[in-house]
Specification:
The chain is of the alpha/beta class and 266 residues long. It folds into two domains: 151 residues, P-loop containing nucleotide triphosphate hydrolases (Rossmann fold), CATH 3.40.50.300; 73 residues, no CATH class. Helices cover 37% and strands 22% of the residues. The chain is built from ten helices and ten strands. The strands form two sheets. A six-stranded mixed sheet has the order 6-7-8-3-9-10, with helices on both faces. α3 crosses α4 and α4 crosses α5. The longest helix is centred in the last third of the chain and has 16 residues. 44% of the residues are buried. Bound molecules: adenosine-5'-diphosphate and magnesium ion.
C-alpha cells in the first residue's frame, strides 16, 4: 500500500542552524507514529515542514502519491493534513464555535458553509466541547483550549493529523481523557504523528516510534525496543546513565527511568 506520507532526505536550516538533517521515513496508512527526542531535537520543525509552514532546504515530502514539497499550509490542509500547535493557538476573542467553524471552512473540503457548520457541531460534540460552544475561547481552561485546537484540526477532516505535545501541561485526569480522545480519532481512520514528552503516552499510543536527536533520526522501531536502545537513553540522559540503566534493568529506558508518567527532559 502507498504510505500515507513519505519523507526523503528532508532538511531545514535556519541560517547556520540545521534544525532537521536528512530525515527519511514513511508513515503507514492507519498508523500512530510517536515522535520523540530531547528539546531542540527538531520535532516541531519537522511538523512545520510536513504541514507546509516551512519549506524544506533539502529533500522531498510526498503525501500519498503526490509530491507536496514546498506547498503552503492551505494546500496541505486541503489535501488532508491538519495539525495542532505545541504552544496552544486559538483565536481567543472568538467563540469556541467560531474557532471550529473557521477550521472547517479553511480546509475547503466542506462543500459549503452549511456543511462546515454541521461538521463543526458534530466535531464539538465528538471532543466533548458541545456545552462550551458559545464561550469565548480565551476564557476556558488550557485542557479545553487544547480540545478547541484539536476540534479545529478535525473539522478539516484530515487524513493525516499531526499532534505537537497535545498533552503537555495537562493533569493526569486530563491526560487520560485526551488519550481516549486520540484513540477515538484513530478509530475514525485518521493516521497520526504524535509528539509527546510523556513516555507513558507514547508507549501506550504508538505503533512505532521515531527518535530525533540534533535534527537527525537517531532510532526507530517498536516502542519497547526504542526506549531500551542505549543510544536513545544516552540522548536523553547522557552516556553514564545509559550504561547503568541498561545493565541493571533490561528494558529500562527513558520511559521508566525518571518515574512513570513524569515529564522527560534532557
Ligand atoms: N523559526 C526558527 N528560527 C530559528 N531557529 C529555529 C526556528 N524554529 C526552530 N528553531 C531551532 O531549531 C531547533 C529545533 O527546534 P524544534 O524543532 O522546536 O525542536 P523540538 O520541537 O524537538 O524541541 C532548535 O535549535 C530551535 O531553536
Ligand atoms: Mg517542539
Amino acid at each position: 500500500m502507498t504510505p500515507a506520507l513519505r519523507l526523503e532526505g528532508v532538511s531545514k536550516s535556519f541560517g547556520g542552524l540545521q534544525a532537521v538533517r536528512d530525515v527519511s521515513f514513511e508513515l503507514h496508512q492507519g498508523e500512530i507514529l510517536g515522535l520523540i527526542g530531547p528539546n531542540g531535537a527538531g520535532k516541531t520543525t519537522l511538523i512545520n515542514l510536513i504541514a507546509g509552514a516551512y519549506r524544506p532546504t533539502g529533500g522531498r515530502i510526498v503525501l500519498g502519491a503526490r509530491d507536496v514539497t514546498g506547498r503552503p499550509p492551505y494546500v496541505l490542509a486541503r489535501l488532508g493534513v491538519a495539525r495542532t500547535f505545541q504552544i496552544v493557538r486559538v483565536f481567543k476573542e472568538m467563540t469556541v464555535w467560531d474557532n471550529v467553524v473557521g477550521g472547517a471552512l479553511f480546509a475547503g473540503r466542506s462543500g459549503g458553509a452549511h456543511r462546515a457548520r454541521e461538521r463543526a457541531a458534530a466535531t464539538l460534540e465528538f471532543v466533548g466541547l458541545g456545552a462550551l460552544a458559545h464561550r469565548r475561547a480565551g476564557d476556558i481552561g488550557l485542557a479545553e483550549q487544547k480540545r478547541v485546537q484539536l476540534a479545529r484540526a478535525l473539522a478539516m477532516q484530515p487524513a493525516v493529523l499531526l499532534l505537537d505535545e497535545a498533552m503537555a501541561g495537562l493533569t493526569h485526569g486530563e491526560i487520560h481523557a485526551a488519550l481516549e480522545l486520540v484513540r477515538a480519532v484513530h478509530r475514525r481512520g485518521v493516521t497520526l504523528i504524535v509528539i509527546e514528552h510523556l513516555m507513558k503516552v507514547i508507549m501506550e499510543l504508538s505503533h512505532r516510534v521515531i527518535v530525533m536527536h540534533h535534527g537527525r533520526v537517531l532510532a526507530q522501531g517498536r516502542p519497547a525496543d526504542v526506549v531500551a536502545d542505549p543510544q536513545v537513553v544516552a540522548a536523553y540522559f547522557g552516556e553514564r546513565y545509559s550504561h547503568r540503566a541498561v545493565r541493571t534493568r533490561p528494558g529500562a529506558g527513558p520511559g521508566d527511568a525518571p518515574g512513570e508518567g513524569r515529564r522527560v527532559t534532557p
